[in-house]
Amino acid sequence: APYNYLWEKHDGSVYVPLINAQTLSDQSVGDYKVTVTDFNGCQVSEEDIEIKQPENFTIDDVIDINTVSCFGGKDGSFTVVPKRPGNFEYSIDGVSWQVSPTFSSLVAGGYQVAMRDLDQPGPVYCARYDVEHVVIDQPEALTVSEESITNVTCLSGNDGAIEVAVGGGTVAVGGDYTYQWYRVTETGNIALTLGS
Fold first, then answer.
1. Are 161 and 181 in contact (CB under 8 A)?
2. What pLDDT is recorded for position 108?
3. pTM of the predicted model over 0.90
């Protein structure tokens, strides 16, 4: 004989009726109660049936943030550290996922890190988007311009000079830029050494 099922969800202090079906689906976290009635009107109830959710997951820290070394380059990187142990995948575009918490070969800009819990049923898994925002910086563009030119004093002389002004880029603390001069010829560029 068929049974009647009354599913109810605990809403604060009372149970709110839901549906009459053997299986209750597409429900949120909470406490539920089912009352089953047979053909003769006999009833049995089961209370405190709890639908739980997986443990929360997020990013605890971002480490090893490496800026792009040259303006317009793509060698930036960073590593995320999850707040709890688990099997996670990570993404910075919400489409491509990776098990490694390290992202590399990045251009300068902002990245929204998403993660998903592989310990939950697939294929969708439990994903959280915009978990962490990471910014990869880059140095200013390296620029060079002519500061002054001194022409040779005599025909075929070698007392000419060129001075350039350089800006941007990255200079080591207490250091300076490194320069390599070339003489341009019809057959190619020739690297010059000090005194040549």
1. no
2. 97
3. no
Question: Do 92 and 115 form a contact (C-beta atoms < 8 A)?
Answer: no
Q: Which of 94, 65, 59, 63 is nearest to 77 (CA)?
A: 65
Q: Which residues, in sequence order, are bridge partners of residue 80?
A: 62
Residue 94 CB partners (closer than 8 Å, separation 6+):
112, 114, 129
5 CB-side CA count, 13 A: 13
Q: What is the mean pLDDT of each run of 10 residues along the chain (196 residues)?
A: 88 89 90 93 92 86 95 96 93 94 97 91 77 94 92 90 89 83 88 72
